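not sure who needs this but someone in the group chat was asking about Transmembrane protein from Candidatus Accumulibacter contiguus so here u go. i didnt clean anything up, its just raw.
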Amino acid sequence: MPSFFSLLLAYSFRTAIDWQQVVWQLPYRKSVCLTIVTAALVWCAFGGAGHFVAASIDWQARDVVLGDLVYGDWPISYAIRDGVHYILRSAIGYFLPAALFAKMLGIQVVDLALYLWTALGAALFLLSLPLPQRPGLRLLLLLLVAVMFSGMDLLGALAYWGEWPEFPVRLEWWTRFSYPSLSGQLFWAPNHALPIWLGTTLFYRHWRHPAFPPFALLLCSLLALWTPFALLGLAPFFLLSVLQYGVSQNQKIPLTPLITTILVMALMGRLLTLNIDEIPATSSLQQAGTAKGFVLSYLVFALLEFGALSLAMSLRLRHSCGILWISVATLGLLPLLVFGPNNDLMLRASAPSLVMLLILTLTIFQPANTPPAQGTKPWLIVAMLSIGAFTPIHEFGRAVMVRRWLPNYDHTLVDQQHGVLPPHYIGRFDRVDLQWILRDPAIIPGRAQRQATKVRDE
């Protein structure tokens, strides 16, 4: 049955896009593309994939998920309780290509495969940004803006902690809220970040094109396979597209992509919401205790993370004002809700809006986008970006200064979680419709079986 959905997606792409009008070409000159790809390779080398330097602690769970996908038959089951399998069901799309490659060549290649896969995603993201068309200092500086893009966490840390933060402490959690820098997203959760980044840049580049609606439907299907937070974060922007171009121009939605999107999203919705009630959910006000403390911390956070930069940009933008204010509204609302162990909703669903702010920031530094009446240099924006750069600098510093460690694929996710079945990764496979659609789950091999497989492959 899963192969049916794959064929349906492939056929939908064939019918939704007029391939005769598609032009395949590099978005920049070869020298610029080479510079951007090199930047992506270096950027990702400081992240967890590849383990060239010290990976963040969250990679301990990501490594064992990757190992489980290599050693296990899909769908993976970790336990049978009361006759029901508990399966891996969340945020695994990022790992599947590397795991499939390692199934063919052995576990020893999986870390390098995941690094190259990560670098490919980061390179495509950087290539999709509005960067200069020619090599030179401006290109390097704007690439640095993308890699170092972050809110002004340093000012918040100084205000709340009362002292200069030790290096390389995480600046992003100076209060109960947190919007991670792009480097923070890449280093700590690339399985969520990369599909969100690519989906956001695709939307921004093409959402005004008349042929975009059917492609957008299929994009929703693919994003649901990678991470549920992508759709949540992009939903306000898709709504803008529908209101501005769908309703006003009476565009008709092709039937095949529409049916495909409904079927795939229904399937993923059923899978991703298995025993979702076990994932903690509440409101930030309930966690804060007092309304006064909540309002004060919220206002300071909003000002430093996105408010000041958005206000400064609004005075200079010649276009995309709707995108800007939707981003601001989304970033303003997300801190009010808490979902997931570390409020994954706020951390992940904020990414599309943060990427939109990055894109709009980059456009301001393009000479063609500077209004004649506002030809002065955007020094205030430069100052805010410079202060924000302290956050990713701390991330790079942690990767270099902390002792490097290597992944251990001999343990399962449940072993790594000390016998606990984490509900944000594992779901109770008790829905009859899913049992009919998916093949029977297979219990994940243990340490002894994995070592035997490794010896055989070597």
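also The mean pLDDT is 88. if thats useful
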